[in-house]
What we know:
6-stranded antiparallel beta sheet; 2 domains
Amino acid sequence: MPKKQSTAAKKARAAAREGEKYTAALRREAENPAAPTTYSYVPVDDAGDDHVWARLVENCPGCPCHAARVCANGLWHQASTPAHADGTPYTDPCPCEEAAKIPEPRALTIAFKGIIRTLDAEYHRHGWLRDTLRIVGYPFRAEPDDGSPAGRCGMVLTRSPVMRTAVDDRGDTWQVPLLGSVRGCSAAITGWWSDEEPED
């Protein structure tokens, strides 16, 4: 690959990051076969028979099995099965993915129903809760939709760049939901749970 990248190369790299397949098409000068080989980046379908594949994806610095964008964005479930350079399947677990399975502890300052409290929370980087913040414990009061007695409720928050009612110790802001679950039933979160209230 040439050290000095052309505009076409830069565009191809940007397109490759979005999933488009580009290749480095081989160009030889017929008049001077001894001249250095040059490449131009073209879509795979236009590469022709005489081409070589260009490696346009940066490897993850933290693991030997995935591209950097896969680990940075938590896209392991979308990535193709990794393999070693010789083609044999990579069987060891990805260290980046394994580390992401452990929730990251955070402290969340939240204003709800006019009361401000700081609570322990866990930021999830893997699984169905990925990119959400779950408050540890059940500090809220919620009333089930089926009319059964109110009960304790937890809370899972999603990111929000505009909502300022919940901010963690990393400075990330979160949207506070008004719906939760009590005894497996959908419920409206109405306030903070009081220890004086009876529990079922």
